[in-house]
Design goal:
Elements (H helix, E strand, L loop, with lengths): L5 H20 L4 H11 L20
Helix pairs in contact: 1-2
Amino acid sequence: MVADGPLARFWSRTWQRMRPELETSGRVDSATVEEALGYLSSHRLAELGPGMPMAWGRRR
């Protein structure tokens, strides 16, 4: 993902649309949303998209 690239813009818009419900739920506060939005436009952005991290395991 590239800062201010298409995927970062998608997640930024998603967080902005979800923000009222997230904050109302009490699970995410305003500071966390601001931090996430700032990170998405930051040169420090280095994130895997959803579905990329995987793990395999076996229950014994």
